[in-house]
Amino acid sequence: MDYTELADELLQKMRALHRAGLQQIIDSNLQGKPIALQCIAHHEANILPGDIANKLGVSSARVAAALNKLEDDGLITRQIDENDRRKILVSITKKGKDLAEKHQQAVTSAVSEMLQLLGEYDAKEYVRITGKLADIIPTAQRAINSVAK
Description:
The protein is mostly helical. It has helices spanning 3-19, 22-29, 32-41, 49-56, 60-72, 94-118, 120-148, and strands spanning 76-80, 88-92.
């Protein structure tokens, strides 16, 4: 099999998806305030900003900016840890929980619609292959990084 031809075809399809705006929609839901709020909402108790940065794979500065906006909007609170005054604990407010749940439902509904349009077989295959890619990307990271430079 000629994987070069297949790679060219895949890149063409990915460009078409990009032009259709799919990546922008995905990115807007996986960055900034929405993803930070989801991360906090899925955490059982208080969470440290550094833990949010690690879970999301972003810089602490980016997390701090998102937390400032979330706090300004009344979606989270921050308080100093009584046991270690160097630590700031982040917790979600009721308003934040409600918004995170509403956002998650909207995203799930949109993705569900897209998968439904694919049909059962293709939707399951798409999810399976996406999972497989997620598993192998770390192994292929060196090749990906060399192209990005």
